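RECORD TYPE: inverse folding
INPUT: structure tokens
STRUCTURE:
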């Protein structure tokens, strides 16, 4: 069941400041960052009392969408709430005062995308090891583990000791062609050195 019928209070409260759309049976309400916590409160007060999830979506070059899915257990309806923050300064007020369950979701979104949730009670790393640099779910993050550290044993067909011809070596998906190719020995493979 769609959350469309439950949006009258939100549309009345925000007027032209909220954009409501429906796609594939899901109703979405979009607002500016300044209306984010108010939108969450309005959805909660309208019966969507359960925060299912909250995450970020990298939308280059503009910035990040922050999306929350809330659920009304009585009406059995979901509602997607969304706002966008700029890439150069991704900040948003915390939702922990509205939904306590937003705590870990915001920590993960901060850690993976770099979105800062102002007023969060404990915005510290949740999943990544200490000292990790970067935001791994951003589209500009280079996933280059196989380039930086070779895997032991045969990696590609033909790279074993069976005497078969080897294929041209390719970089893993998402790794720029010139990554780690600065001319120094540390940037070259053993066959190039």
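DESIGNED SEQUENCE:
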């Amino acid at each position: 069941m769609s959350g469309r019928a439950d949006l009258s209070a939100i549309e009345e409260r925000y007027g032209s400041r909220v954009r409501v759309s429906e796609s594939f049976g899901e109703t979405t309400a979009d607002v500016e960052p300044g209306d984010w916590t108010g939108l969450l409160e309005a959805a909660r007060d309208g019966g969507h009392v359960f925060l299912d999830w909250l995450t970020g979506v990298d939308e280059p070059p503009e910035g990040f969408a922050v999306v929350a899915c809330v659920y009304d257990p009585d009406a059995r309806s979901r509602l997607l709430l969304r706002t966008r923050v700029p890439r150069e300064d991704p900040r948003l007020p915390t939702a922990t005062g509205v939904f306590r369950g937003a705590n870990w979701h915001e920590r993960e979104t901060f850690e993976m995308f770099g979105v800062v949730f102002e007023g969060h009670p404990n915005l510290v790393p949740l999943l990544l090891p200490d000292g990790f640099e970067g935001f791994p779910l951003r589209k500009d993050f280079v996933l280059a583990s196989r380039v930086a550290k070779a895997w032991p044993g045969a990696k590609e067909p033909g790279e074993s000791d069976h005497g078969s011809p080897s294929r041209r070596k390719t970089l893993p998906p998402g790794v720029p062609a010139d990554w780690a190719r600065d001319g120094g020995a540390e940037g070259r493979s053993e066959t190039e050195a």
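NOTES: The first helix runs from residue 8 to 14.
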